[in-house]
Amino acid sequence: EEVELRRVDMTEGLLQFLATQEAVIRTKGMEPEVIFPQKSVFVLADDKLLDRMFGNLLNNVLRHAKGDSFQIRLEEVEGRECAITFANEVDSPETLQVDALFERTYRGEKARTGSGAGLGLYIVKLLAQKQKGRVGAQIKENILEISVYFALSK
Fold first, then answer.
1. What DSSP state is assigned to residue 9?
2. Cα gap 92→110, rounded to integer Å
3. Which of the residues 6, 37, 88, 140 could staple to 70 if both were Cys, CB 3.0 to 4.6 A apart?
């Protein structure tokens, strides 16, 4: 499918995404903590692909988060790129292979019990690359953070 990169207000885009997903999030009894800058953050991206990426990242959180809260952060990194991070508590952080999360074949402990093929994060990575972005993941104590990075657009 064609990728149309254009200047996107990531702050606005994420807020709109969350507004459309509010019912889904509430149904799961989850409460997002949203940490956004006070200003608009512009990147070159494709609206439709961003929506799919955010959808996959949110599904990942709703499916695997321990507890009832998660965090969505948007921040500028060194004035060059922005990071969109979905963070949630996980049950057994030691069983997660952070480096493998974005691989097509990766399935975490939970996924083995048959809750989906685990292609969500692989697709996020592919869609990020199509938009000249990149992905990353890390575990801090028992919090899994999955981030997507885009170059800032002036």
1. E
2. 10
3. 88
Helices (H), ranges, 65-139: 120-130
- Indicate the pairing of strand 69-77 with strand 31-35: parallel
Q: Quote the CA–CA distance of 103 and 9 in Å, as a whole number.
A: 29
pLDDT digits (tens, 9 = 90+) for 55-77: 999 999 999 899 999 999 999 99
Helix (H) or strand (E) holding 145: strand 143-151
Q: How many residues does the chain have?
A: 154
Alpha-carbon gap, residue 67 to 88, rounded angstroms = 8
What is each CA distance from 1 to 45, 67, 128, 148, 152, in whole angstroms? 14, 37, 14, 21, 24
Structure tokens at 23: 């019912």
- Name the one residue in this structure whose structure tokens are 């952080």: 93
Average pLDDT over every residue of 128-142: 95
Q: Is 47 helix (H, G, I), strand (E, B) or coil?
A: helix
**Whole-model pTM?**
0.91
SS3 sequence of 83-130? EEEEEEECCCHHHCCHHHCCCCCCCCCHHHHCCCCCCHHHHHHHHHHH
CA torsion angle for 92, 98, 102, 105 (degrees, to 10)?
-60
Rounded Cα–Cα distance for residues 106 and 125 (Å): 13
